[in-house]
Amino acid sequence: MQLQWIPAQQLQSKEAFLNIVAAYQAAITASISGAAFDSNDSTTQDSSATCFLVETPALIESALSEVSSAFFDGNKDIALQLFEAVKKNVFNLVDTLLVDQKDACISRLGDLFTEIEWLLHDKPVRSFLYYKDQIVCTGAVLGSALLHHFLLEEGIDNEFLDVRDCIVASDKFGGAIVIEDISLKRLQQTIHTASVVVTQAGIGATDQNENARLTEAGSIWLQRTLTGL
Description:
The protein is of the alpha/beta class and 229 residues long.
């Protein structure tokens, strides 16, 4: 499976999203051309098998950290105001990106926003890093949802994968390690290697379904594992 890493800076405008599509199409063309020279090799991978690994969009990355800080400091109203600004920025981007896929994307984003809003109406009783992970990890899911629907809008069929359903992480929030044997089994059972998959970079979930940011080693393990599928 080919891996397309989508950094935060590439998720800020329609032009940036179009560049992602152009790079994908160029990679597929190059892969098909290369396979033509090796058509008798049974180990040649399906050229359409691609995984987009998406970071949190830059326009909301720092904002979600600010939401986390305000919430943990007991400033619920400020946290909610900051989060409303995040939602506004994301919906503005949706307006510029999508037409046919707009309603489906907004519905998916609404479910993700609800995850955070429920948390912001509680009172913090655990560590700051725990709450930061619960809020910030959702950003990568938001970014991948935007890309998933944009690819569909551009006629590129793809599967959306919430990587938190596959990557089981330790409960060391802010720097969790991957429980590799369980995570590998789940990825192998979930991902169809002849398809295009859009998922998230650098995050997983504990066995209690709590969001957890991965260590750098965990992120590298995920990249290598996806490439090997």
